[in-house]
Amino acid sequence: MNDESKSLEPEAQARVRSAPSSLAGASGSDGQWRILVFDSVESTNTIALGLADDPANHGTVILAREQTAGRGQYGRSWLAPADSSVLMSVLLFPPPALRRPVLLTAWAAVSVCDLCRQLTGLPVRIKWPNDVMIQDRKVCGILIEQRASGPDKVASVAGIGLNVTQSATAFAQAGLMEAASLAVFSDRVFHCRRIAEELLGRLDAEYRRLVEGDLSSLEVRWKNYLGLLGTQVTVACLKETRQGRLLDVSFAGLELEVGGERVRLQPEMVRHLSP
After folding, report:
1. Any idea which fold 3-224 has?
2. How many of the other CB atoms lie within 10 Å of CB of 76?
3. Helices 216-226 and 101-120: crossing angle, nearest 10°?
4. Most buried one in 85, 101, 180, 250, CB count within 10 A?
5. Contact yes or no for 207/199 (Cβ under 8 A)
6. Which residues in the chain land under pLDDT 50?
7. Domain coordinates of the chain in residue numbers?
8. Helices (H) then strands (E): counts for the chain
9. By C-alpha distance, which of 10, 14, 12, 114 is closest to 54?
């Protein structure tokens, strides 16, 4: 926890909104997303983690217009100028069956993919484990962070950074040739707040299905957005790298055909999956 999360008093520093949700009865939730909106923060995930000791904060959403020291996967940075991106962190205290990072990453990534496809009309894919791509350019990054303050108090924060209004020129000037925004792929005028509201609605509907026990519909769409089934892939794990034909992807594991044998790898052990 850095100095920002220690010193901030969210209600005093943020504009507070609420939105209907399907969280009623979960970890003390009153059935509303509690939304804290900041003008500028170092990291929305840091603020959310600062609230992670109290299950009553289940369903708290941190939104920011600007992020100056965001975190990405494996310690990478994620910076965003004001009003350029949806910068969102969702704090949950999921039931044990929903705490796996791979499942929470799929929950966030599929929700973003569905929204991006609707807004641009273009094919969208997930680059393992947590990037959303349009035409091989990254438009969104996702980071799941967790904190346990007791055996039955495990908080999960889903951080989402979705590029919305930046121009292709802005990315080129920053040397980010593999990045893009929704505006790069559409002539529409996008507003970050409206897109954040639409994304939260999708996250809410998907989370409701998960709580009701329907993991299969999310798994199928996650698998489709990942693609690569039936192709030769390279799987970089924590301690080794495997190559083989990808037979299946599920929350239970990745199944490869390697030298005529089937090999199953736990999703949480896979750092990269590439053609």
Report:
1. BirA Bifunctional Protein; domain 2 (3.30.930)
2. 10
3. 70
4. 85
5. no
6. 1-12, 24-30, 73-75
7. 3-224, 228-274
8. 7, 14
9. 10
